[in-house]
Amino acid sequence: MTPTSIKQGQDAAPILARIGLKAPPSAIVEYVRQERGMDDNARLILLMPAGEWAAMQATPPLDAVAPDRYTANEATLLGASEGAWHPSDEPAIKGAQFNLPAATYLNVGVAPANEGRVRVYLSWFET
Questions:
Q1: Residue 13, Cβ neighbours under 10 Å: how many?
Q2: 111 lies in which domain range?
Q3: Which of 20, 23, 11, 15 is nearest to 42 (CA)?
Q4: What angle do CA 114, 8, 70 make, to 5 degrees?
Q5: Confidence (pLDDT) at 20
Q6: What is the b/e burial string over 59-76, where b = at least 16 CB atoms within 10 angstroms of the residue's CB?
Q7: pLDDT tens across 36-91, in order?
Q8: Is 7 helix (H, G, I), strand (E, B) or coil?
Q9: Which pLDDT does position 127 carry in this prediction?
Q10: Measured in whole angstroms, how far is the alpha carbon of residue 16 from the centre of its chain?
């Protein structure tokens, strides 16, 4: 299927709201891509302090999977690296999958970054 529209580099807030997430104000949006079609999908990369990620994980829907349950195997659900989307290039990435309402899913990957920060990969899609 060819997407009806692709928007890369757009504001992440509306996409995060659609997923049911809110990023901390200090989060840096490194990548945004949204495709609209029969089944919409979106990918985001956020860079944030590790402590703020821990706080974000304690809120729904991310609180459905305990942080120690994230695995390298689940991170493979984020797919291959392509351009600015590079989860498979992160050697220490761990991930989890979340089954959300309305037949939607969220794959999350977290990789350590520099200066006490983490890089968070979000891949949301409809089915």
A1: 13
A2: 5-126
A3: 15
A4: 45
A5: 92
A6: eebbeebeeeebeeebbe
A7: 888 889 999 999 999 999 999 999 999 999 999 999 999 999 999 999 999 999 99
A8: strand
A9: 87
A10: 9
Number of domains forming the structure of the chain: 1
Q: How far apart are CA 33 and CA 31, in angstroms?
A: 7
Kindly list the distances between the CA atom of residue 25 and the CA atoms of 46, 66, 86, 101, in Å, as whole numbers in the listed order.
Answer: 11, 23, 23, 26
Q: Tokens for 105?
A: 């899913």
Residue 100: Cβ-neighbour burial (10 angstroms; 0-12, 13-18, 19+): middle
CA dihedral 111, 70, 29, 61 (to 10 degrees): -170
Alpha helices in the chain (DSSP H): 13-19, 50-57, 72-75
Structure tokens belonging to residue 81: 């690296």
Name which residue leads in pLDDT, 9 or 122.
122
